[in-house]
Amino acid sequence: MKKYLILLFSLLYLIACTEEENPVAVQEDFDILNLDSLLNHIVKNPSGKLKSKTMQLQNNISLEEFYYNNAGDSILTIKTYEPNVNYTYSVHHYNDQGHIIYSKNYFTDNGLLKYFNSTQYQYTDFNEIASISRVNNDSFTQILEFFFDENKRKIMMIGRLPFAGEKIELVYENPGSEKVVKEYFYWDKTAGSPYYNYQINYDEMGRIISKTVSEKENSEVLKYFYDEMGRIKEEIYFDLHFGQQEIGKANYTYYD
């Protein structure tokens, strides 16, 4: 059970790393070490934009708050971790094609932002993320690497769990389709059988509505819910080891 929770929390973290923000030009007209100066560039109510994401997995709670500049582009993410109530600040930078190339991550110390590390992104020649790395002073660690077939479809992800350090492999199955229909997780692919495999289910609008382990009732491990505007509003996570038990959820809010 403990290993399953570490796996789930880590995978959710890794997946979040691959989600791009909207493009924003590198800001040079504020002191990055001064939080008040940075916040002067924040728009108070960027209508319709993602405002927050709250994730709860048993006793672990994290809150991400998203802030935007006058152009409506993402500029800052503030993440809060409970119960220790730690804060991190990530400032995002993009290339001319509108793809994130790195995020600088900071923590606060007496009102100043202190540099912690950076997250760097590399891309394929067809503009898909090829790898994500973490840079901390002189150390460089590749977190994730993605592989694609001749049709430019993602077929595999290899990485290390951020909270366990173990190597993992995710293999995607998407025969004749742009959408992934099955997902296989391996601790060690050479060992043979996957640790799990999920069927990915979509609605008539092409949105993911669930991941299941079989076609039987109550076999969902993840469920997705959307608001009337088609935006994701909630994800619910289940453990199937002892029936279908809810073990966590993520909720999304948007600016009015």
Strand order of the largest sheet: 1-2-3-4-5-6-7-8-9-10-11-12-13-14-15-16
How does the overall form come out from the CA principal axes?
Answer: globular
> Quick one: biggest sheet?
16 strands, antiparallel, barrel
State the share of residues found in helices, binned by percent: under 10%
Q: Domain count, please report it.
A: 1
One letter per element, helices H and strands E, the order comes to HHEEEEEEEEEEEEEEEE
Residue share in β-strands: over 45%
CATH class equals Mainly Beta
Poorly predicted ranges: 18-31
- Structure class: mainly beta
Q: Might you state the CATH topology name?
A: Porin
Termini Cα gap: 40 Å
Average pLDDT score: 80
Number of helical segments?
2
Number of strands: 16
Report the C-alpha radius of gyration, rounded. 19 Å
Could you say what the CATH architecture is? Beta Barrel
Describe, in plain words, how this protein is organized in 3D:
The protein is mainly β. It has a single domain (2-254), classed as Porin. It is built from two helices and 16 strands. The chain has helices at residues 2-17, 35-39; strands at 50-57, 60-68, 74-82, 86-94, 100-109, 112-123, 129-136, 139-148, 154-160, 167-173, 182-186, 196-202, 208-212, 220-226, 232-239, 245-254. The chain has a 16-stranded antiparallel barrel. 16% of the residues are buried. The model is unreliable at 18-31 (pLDDT under 50).
